[in-house]
Design brief:
Length: 146
């Protein structure tokens, strides 16, 4: 199985232990990263998510954002995944109508998952429910091995 990891899952993995609301999601995200590291699942993370992790740090940690983001991304890059680049203008234009979403900032994630031939986009973000007809959308709790 090949999955695309959305930032909402990555942030739970990196920062969930510090948030009472995200702590319940932490076991499933840790299990998912273990499955990735053990090569039971192939995962893709895009540069869009890397930028969004930094933006999250900037919002939450203010003046310490650069330092915290560097440490968090160092932790992330210790795990087994494929890094996907930014979309070209042509890729965005050709695929934007396939993934019509209320939050357009999520669209590059859906297109990246599609172009990387992922079986599912793994997220906690409910905006992705609008594209379920075009791409499988799962939470970490719903990942099953064949």
């Amino acid at each position: 199985m090949k999955i695309y990891l959305d930032t909402s899952v990555i942030n739970v993995f990196l920062f969930g232990r510090y948030s009472d609301t995200e702590k319940p999601r932490l076991p499933a995200t840790k299990r998912l990263f273990s499955l990735m590291d053990e090569k039971h699942i192939d995962a893709v993370i895009s540069l869009y998510s890397i930028q969004e992790v930094f933006s999250f740090c900037k919002k939450i940690f203010a003046s310490e954002a650069g330092h915290v983001a560097r440490l968090a991304l160092s932790e992330l890059f210790m795990h087994n995944f494929e890094l996907s680049g930014l979309l070209t203008r042509q890729e965005r234009l050709l695929n934007r109508t396939r993934f019509n979403m209320p939050d357009l900032s999520d669209q590059p994630h859906a297109i990246s998952a599609f172009l990387n031939k992922c079986d599912a986009l793994v997220t906690y973000d409910t905006h992705f429910q609008h594209i379920k007809g075009n791409l499988s959308v799962l939470s970490p709790e719903h990942i099953k091995l064949k």
